[in-house]
Amino acid sequence: MPLEELTEREWLAKDKAPREAVFFYTPLCGTCKVALRMLEIAEAAGAALPIAKININFAPAFRDGWRIASVPALVLVQDGVPVRTEYAMQSVDALYALLKTFSP
């Protein structure tokens, strides 16, 4: 199942889950496409954490405020505040474990 695509404004305006993840990417990034597919598989396997994806090109507030250094980037968010940023999407197993440990 594809991840929910949001704009920066939509994410800021929506009701936040206590814990969630935001995946930052750019459309032409090949590594981002691989990481996105791994996240979709981890989510389908039962990682019960809401995950949104946002095109970093249109998210200047997040890029600067959350100090996103590169893409792909998976930011774990607790109560609307980023608590961990992962840049290396090593495997589906690693992503699944990360998402499961962070799930409420």
UniProtKB/TrEMBL annotation:
Q: Which residues form the Thioredoxin domain?
A: 21-99
Q: Which SUPFAM superfamilies match?
A: Thioredoxin-like (SSF52833)
Query: Cross-referenced Pfam families, in alphabetical order?
Result: Thioredoxin
Protein name in UniProt: Thioredoxin family protein
User: Which InterPro entries does the record cross-reference, listed alphabetically?
Assistant: Thioredoxin-like_sf, Thioredoxin_domain
